[in-house]
Amino acid sequence: MKKAVFTIEEYNGVNNAGPKAKNDIDFFLKKENFEIIHQYFNVHSKVKKFKDAYWTIPHLFENNAFDELFFQYPTYSSFLMKRLIKKMREKTKKLFFIIHDVESLRLFQNDKIYWKGERALFNATDGLIVHNYKMKQWLRENGVTVPMVELGIFDYDNPQNVNQSSEFERTVCFAGNLAKSNFLDKVSLQDGKLEVFGSHPSKHYLNGVSYRGQMSPDELPKKLTQNFGLVWDGDQLDTCSGKFGNYMRYNNPHKVSLYLSSGQPVIIWKKAALAEFILKNNVGIAVDSLENLDKILDKVTEKQYQLMKHNTVQLATSLRNGQFILQAVKDIENY
Question: What is the pLDDT of residues 218-240, one digit of tens each?
Fold first, then answer.
């Protein structure tokens, strides 16, 4: 049986090696004898998009057909996506999407016209691998009729050693795009410490919060030696706010996999879709607010932390082996 993973990489004017989550899925499925196919599109030029739509896409997969084609969705052009799905359907017996983002839940919330188009793309497949139950439930309630299976959590190819240290010192880290993480300006700690990694740091961090620089996804795990990794979004401490905060109700943030695969339990918003996974596997804590982060850390006992740490180190092995994507692929194939 001939199987392939197909990924679009959009040119954005910088040296872009491709998103970590998509590259990791390539990595794990290649071990299962999937053919890995990448196609570069420049979605920021109308002329080049027109060329891609009427020249590149019609010539994709020439002299090549597949029994199963797994497309890493989305590509950030609805215009090209409509052309792509027609070509992919011609060249494969079974077409599945591995969902990285549902844009109708992320950037185009409450946009009924956009959702109509995105739903049509989903329903043109033979099945979807979605993040979790909350995402699957929303899609089903809003008209997606094809089979769907839950990934559970994103795997993470982590080249660094798992941090085995389990000494509880009330330390937390946050890694991400700091420009959209304005809540960090409001965090103040007396006993605990919050170390921040990423681009565009603020100049206004308060007591107990320190900036530690920016580094590649492969290098960053070396620095994740704190007790917890923080998963939060928006500009408020009492809730995850804004479009990206609301999106946490449905998606699996990739930074959770970064933390866990590094051996680091997490602190996550209680209303996040992934909070259920964290609590079920006892690899962190779920909270309503960060207004009293010191008190949250004070309530964690040494015994509780040791168990969370043990469970996290065990889970890190599964994430580093691609267990979740491999199982999800089997599940959608056998649906």
Answer: 899 999 999 999 999 999 999 99
Give yes or no on whether 3-150 and 171-320 have one common fold.
Answer: yes
For residue 36, the number of C-alpha atoms closer than 13 Å in the C-beta half-sphere is 13
**Mean pLDDT in residue range 153-179:** 94
Going by C-alpha positions, the residue among 232, 220, 192 that lies closest to residue 208 is 192
Tens digits of residue pLDDT in 261-291: 999 999 999 999 999 999 999 999 999 999 9
Alpha helices in the chain (DSSP H): 20-30, 46-51, 78-91, 112-123, 133-141, 242-247, 254-261, 275-280, 293-299, 302-320, 323-333
Cis peptide before 74 (omega within 30 of 0): yes
Tokens 């990423």 locate to 198
* Residues ≥6 apart with Cβ < 8 Å to 19: 100
122 contacts 148 by C-beta, under 8 angstroms = no
Token pair 């080249």: residue = 159
Q: Provide the pairing of β-strand 209-211 with 127-130.
A: unpaired
Average pLDDT, the chain: 93
Task: Yes or no: say if 285 and 264 are a contact pair by the CB < 8 Å rule.
Answer: no
CATH architecture of the domain 171-320 equals: 3-Layer(aba) Sandwich (3.40)
* CATH number belonging to the domain at 3-150, selected among 3.40.50.2000, 3.40.50.1000, 1.10.1040.20, 3.50.50.60: 3.40.50.2000
Q: Are 41 and 80 in contact (CB under 8 A)?
A: yes
What are the extents of the domains in the chain?
3-150, 171-320
Distance CA 259, CA 216 (A): 14
On the CB side of 182, how many CA atoms lie within 13 Å of its CA? 8
- Edge-to-edge strands, sheet with 35-41: 35-41, 3-10, 66-73, 92-99, 127-130, 148-150
